[in-house]
Amino acid sequence: MATAGDIKSTNPTTSEGENVIVAVDLDEVLGEFIPALCSFHADRYPNEPKLTHTDFHSYHFANVWKCSDADSNRKVAEFFDSKHFAHPNPATIAGAYDALHKLKHHKHHHHHNNNKHHHHHTTHSKPSSEQQTTTATATATTAAATSPADTKSDAPTTPPSVRFEFVLVTSRQTILQERTQKWLDHHYPNIFSKVVFGNHYGSSGVKKKKSELCAELGARILIDDSLVYAMDCATATVPITASAAAATTTTTTTTTTTTTTATTHHPPMHVILFDHNNSYTWNKLGGSDNKSVTALSANVYRALSWAEITDHLLRLHPIVSATKAQSVSATAK
Predict the structure, then answer these.
(1) HSE-up of 90 (CA within 13 Å, CB side)?
(2) Cβ contacts of residue 326 below 8 Å, gap of 6+?
(3) Nearest to 10 by CA among 225, 199, 186, 202
(4) What is the spatial distance between Cα 261 and Cα 251, in angstroms, rounded to a whole number?
(5) Which residues of 208-235 are buried (b: 16+ CB within 10 A; e: fewer)?
(6) Rounded distance between C-alpha atoms, residue 91 and residue 31, angstroms
(7) What string of pLDDT tens digits covers the 333 residues of the chain?
(8) Nearest-angstrom CA–CA distance, 99 and 27
(9) CA nearest 87: which of 25, 176, 23, 1?
(10) What is the CA radius of gyration of the chain?
């Protein structure tokens, strides 16, 4: 059986220059999991209240259905065996495939001392009050990342172009791996270079936090609908330990092999919190799952559509690229 963190490559990664790796969640970001669950629940339990996805104030379904965890788990298991979850269901989120396809083939060309991006997209919603601080911080970060001090003549040569590389990072249990891959191959062919399962809802096996999975993949940006995961990835500094090349010492009588390890730290990520049409009740500030969260982290941006995600990703691109270049330069010194 597959374990948490198992990675499947779906297509070779080839790029000119350096990729910016973007981790993308599945349920409620690419596919309509909760609407499908609601349809199933209405069919199977017609005497219980008929709910829509906006009634899900929590992603802990027992809190929504007002039942025990055991009954909630049983209902979800029944859903997985129903027509509502059978291929090619659930339905996809509007605009997601087109946006990812265009972004994957988008090349960002670097221009020193140029803070303007040449790709313009319509603004689809007015920033909420909780995002104004984020916007101001992002503007300051952009200015710092593109200041003349960062373009010294002795700086490393910047790649002529960089691309987005998308990896799928889902908290789904690993028993759904085969069905999930089939769904992705059908609805999002050739989009994701890797697919990783956190197994958060699994009854057995290893479970991994999204911040850990993203660190292992080298992802610098996350697109997710969970405020819990968003705040974790936006604030966590995750240690990554890798084995260095083994050193072998041979004497006339013995041979000793010593393997050293090197630890680096994956920095906090930029996170796009997806709130489709402002309808995701479970990721609102102060909600059932987020009672302790009173404000978004400075590097979390709430987006209401995939058009808005696209626009924000293109704004983040030069910031993340500059940060990576500075990090590589500092490591090389």
Answers:
(1) 21
(2) 150
(3) 186
(4) 24
(5) bbbbbbbbbbebbbbbbbbbebbbbbbe
(6) 6
(7) 444 444 443 333 333 457 899 999 999 999 999 999 999 999 999 999 999 999 999 999 999 999 999 999 999 999 999 999 999 999 999 999 999 999 998 876 655 444 444 444 444 444 455 554 444 444 444 444 443 444 343 434 444 467 899 999 999 999 999 999 999 999 999 999 999 999 987 778 889 999 999 999 999 999 999 999 999 999 977 666 554 444 444 555 555 555 555 566 678 999 999 999 999 999 999 888 888 888 998 999 999 999 999 999 998 877 776 665 555 444 444
(8) 17
(9) 176
(10) 22
Structure tokens at 213: 């999975």
Which pTM was predicted? Answer: 0.74
For residues 281 and 55, is the Cβ–Cβ distance under 8 A?
yes
The structure tokens 């909780």 sit at 130
Amino acid at the residue 90: P
Hey, what are 219's tokens? 């992802």
Tokens matching residue 122: 């319509």
Burial 265-281 (b: 16+ CB within 10 A, else e): ebebbbbbbbbbeeebb
